[in-house]
Amino acid sequence: MRFSTSLPFNPVGLSRRVTVTFAMACVALLTLPVTIAQDSALKPFVPRNVEPPKDAKYVLADGSVYIAGNDLLVPYILKLNAVFLKTHPGFKFKTDLYTSGLAVSGISSGKSAIGPMARDPSFQEIDSFVSRYGYPPTDIQVGWDNTPDAEHVPPGKYPPGVWVNVKNPTPWLSLDDIKGIFTTGSGKGDYTFWGQLEGHEGPIGGNGADYAKREIHVYMPKLERLPILATMRFQLGGLPWTRRAEHLPLVEDVINAVANDPFGIGLIGWWPTDEGWDRKVELAEKVRFLPLSMTKESRVSHGRVGDLYPLAGGIHLMLNRVPGQPLEPWLKEYIRLALSKEGQDLITSLTITNGFIPLDPKDVARELAKIE
Predict the structure, then answer these.
(1) pLDDT (tens digit, 9 = 90+) per residue, 62-84?
(2) pLDDT tens sequence across 255-265
């Protein structure tokens, strides 16, 4: 059995024989050079003299600054803190990085100075924060979490992605195409038939295949209110999910439906898998990870290491900043480091091992403006 090279990770916890084949392909892939946009315009970090906070709720009894957030960011936050401490030795940090849910709740309670998270904040998290403070949290994006490994810590979580049946002739789709399939109300019309979509040489199925006149069968996990699916909806414009979608209980059910439906398409995100599921080998050759592009004109991503997938989540540092008031000097210093050349190099150093990707240098100025 061979895996399609378009599969960036093991979708359904496949058998050892398939997994070994896949692992060998991954080793070969990881030996390829990772091309990540670098720009000499990124400013080096020039440290400034800032005093450690003393009276904030997030300062512990021993003077440590407390940070709570996402477990996926453990290696990044530890490295970032270490660099900060080299130039600011008077500081101490205590981190508890267990789940992304701690990021916004931590800064909302005031117990955490910064909320690191490796996904975009959900509608519910933002609304909860606004209901308490009357303004949204300050969201500083410092990179992308494009983790390609389904077994990456924490185990059994799958990167957001779109899956189709292996018989589907669709070469790739744009984010607007995905929006038209999975959501409704964009004003541009919803896609309900495969023939409405463009392929390499015209409409899908335009070469005489059955796809031109067949309806698109949309499958999604029934856990549509979980954070990752909520944030994917945000990336698709925040529109309501299409009523044509069939919401199935688990990720495995979505993959199973797509594997057995040539006209199906599935959208999945970070959900734990059922390790007892017994249809692994059968489905391995029946599903295909669908490449996506941001626009019809932009580069197509296959979701591999260092290859930013349009549905990838951002790496965020969430802050509680009162609008119109200056950010605490040390927090401003910390964010400046994260967005400096040294800070972005830390993200790059974790590309192969963790799938993280730095910001496009042209986007750094946008994030820096949020702390002014």
Answers:
(1) 999 999 998 889 999 999 999 99
(2) 889 999 999 99
Task: Give, in words, the CATH class of 151-301.
Answer: alpha beta
CA torsion angle for 265, 271, 276, 280 (degrees, to 10)? 30
* pTM (predicted TM-score): 0.80
Q: Nearest to residue 226, comparing CAs of 95, 99, 129, 134? A: 99
Q: Tokens standing for 290?
A: 């669908």
Q: How far apart are CA 167 and CA 263, in angstroms?
A: 9
Answer yes or no: is pLDDT of 160 > 80: no
Mean pLDDT of the residues in the chain? 81
Q: How far from 69 is each of 113, 124, 197, 218, 250, CA to CA, in Å?
A: 10, 17, 40, 33, 26
Beta strands in 172-291 (DSSP E): 173-174, 198-199, 202-203, 217-221, 246-248, 264-268, 287-289
Using DSSP's 3-state secondary structure scheme, residue 22 falls into helix
Share of the chain above pLDDT 70, in %: 76
Please tell me the chain's helix, strand, coil percentages from 3-state DSSP, rounded to the nearest 5: 35, 20, 50
65-146+314-371 homologous superfamily = Periplasmic binding protein-like II (3.40.190.10)
- Angle in degrees, 0-180, between the axes of helices 227-235 and 123-133, rounded to the nearest 10: 90
Element (H, E) at 68: strand 65-69
Phi, psi of 139 (to 5 degrees): -110, 110
Paired tokens of 238: 């925040």
Which residue's structure tokens are 């909320």?
115
